[in-house]
Known about the structure:
This protein is α+β, with helices and mostly antiparallel strands. It has helices at 2-15, 26-36, 38-59, 103-169, 175-210, 230-240, 242-262, 284-288, 319-385, 391-425, 431-434, 444-451, and strands spanning 64-74, 85-99, 268-279, 300-311.
Amino acid sequence: MRFRGKIIAALLGGAALGAPAMATTLQDAFVQTYSSSPTLNAARAQLRGTDEGVSIAKAASRPQLNSTVGLSQSTNGIDNFSNGARSLTAQLNLSYPLFQGGRVRNGINAATSRVAAGRAELRTTEGNIFTQVVSAYMDVIRDASIVDLNRKNVDVLNTNLKASRDRFQVGDLTRTDVAQSEARLSLARSQLITAQGNLTASRENYRRVVGSWPENLAPPPALPRLPSDPDRAVTTALDNSPAIQAAAAETKAAGYDVGTARSQRLPTVSAIAGPNYNNYLGTAYRLTGQAKGTPGIDETRTANTFGVQMTLPLYQGGLAGARVRQAQATQNVAIESGIDTERQVIANTRAAFAAYQAAMAGIAANQEAVKANELALEGVRAENRVGTRTVLDVLNAEQELLNSQVQLVSAQHDEYVAGFALLNAMGRAEARDLGLDGGTLYDPTANYNHVTHWIGDWSEQPKYGPKGTHTTGPTPTDPDVAPYNPDAGNGAVTPPQQ
């Protein structure tokens, strides 16, 4: 609980730090996704269907009431009705299972275990969706930063090119120097266009995951303190991973299925009762051999029956044994799948921890690289002014600075995404961990408690209306990805000068 509290405090408290007015925070993205994600809503609907498995299993332990009504005509031939008699029959049958060999008990237990597995799978879906949200959110921030860096680089190279042309006019530089500046500016424009395309793709992916266009994303809050070594992370994951809990519940349910299959070898006992009604519709005299109209002939007859019925299977052609063996094989699959799931959780946790550590180290290294390249660029420019460095040296220094800045932005993105992925791998990235304050959290037990007490055959859920939001419609105008023209200021790319 202390760990979860730290997550909530970090995400709630940090969301407002440095956020511009009317900006979309990561918390906002979580809240919107939680309520409008079609993937999450489909997972909830699937769990509601799993809940019904308990009601279905319980139905086998309840009384069964059936009625039969029939109208018949007996004859000695298709066209000869002289000896025929008509009969209207009605029958009401009530049966109550007294003993079914344990199949009901095992069926209910299996269904309940599958509900537990379904809830754990819903938690897994939540964590995965929120991880996608973080990745999409950070992709947009990263790519917007890269676009900004490339735009500034184009500005700098435009200025360099103008200066090179002026110096060429006075004979201070050669035509080769000017050509090098023109080539580097063209390359920078190409890199800017590529970065703009990547930003558009990231924003479209954000809209797919979250459900809205990312107008203005605030800086993300700081992540909570994460484990300092992979073994602690793995221990947390093994204790909290919903994937492992789902696998354990499925294994338990498979064990109950074996018991259900074995019950098919045992006898079943039921109590039965019900009235019977026959009306011969004026033809009872034929059944008694009397003439039509003979007085004293009763046209209606009724009877009540009750008793106990036992069915004892003696031989089923090997069906019962085959079903037991089949259920045992399914149980074996569940056991092995549980071990495989545990392996995957451990591997994913260690991989996420390694990625997080590598990203943090990458941030430190790239910060040093940016500082060094900034100093190098200042020095190369100064040496160029006194004639000891060429224009190409300046262009290369500017490109190296840009590359290190882009790598730093990417490393910061990777560090945050990997950190949240580590939280997810440890089972700490669900709605209850993130403190979503945009509405009531979905309670999977509410539907379960409701439907498992329904006993009517005519009860239904209300007509379903989709909860997921559509993303149709025009894409908003995005100045960050408009072609760039530093001279005109209207977003158009300036064509290369000859």
